[in-house]
Write a sequence for this structure.
């Protein structure tokens, strides 16, 4: 489990927030820097982080505190990472997880 601080100071008033570009399912996506990856993806409109292994339904972050495991993603080739516990970094390669066998 990462121990980096997930809290970041706000930019000075009137200054635009710092952004990073990641790759999500093969497409570039701009996210707030220094924010939890799950929060940045939700703000960017991502609503399907993984598929339920039972019915294939869309799953997305629920607790944002590392408890529910609904935010699992493949991050830089490592499967089942909790996106709410990882900061968005420039160049990350992130993929949704398809939990239902085909
Ligand atoms: S949102 Fe619940 S563990 Fe990440």
């Amino acid at each position: 489990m990462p121990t980096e601080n997930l809290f970041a100071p706000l930019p000075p008033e009137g200054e635009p927030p710092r952004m990073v570009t990641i790759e999500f399912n093969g497409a570039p996506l701009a996210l707030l820097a220094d924010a939890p990856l799950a929060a940045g993806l939700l703000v960017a409109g991502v609503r399907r982080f993984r598929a339920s292994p039972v019915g294939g339904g869309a799953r997305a972050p629920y607790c944002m505190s590392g408890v529910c495991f609904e935010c699992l993603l493949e991050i830089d080739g490592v499967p089942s990472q909790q996106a709410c516990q990882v900061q968005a970094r420039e160049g990350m390669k992130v993929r949704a997880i398809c939990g239902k066998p085909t």
Q: What stands out?
A: The mean pLDDT is 89.
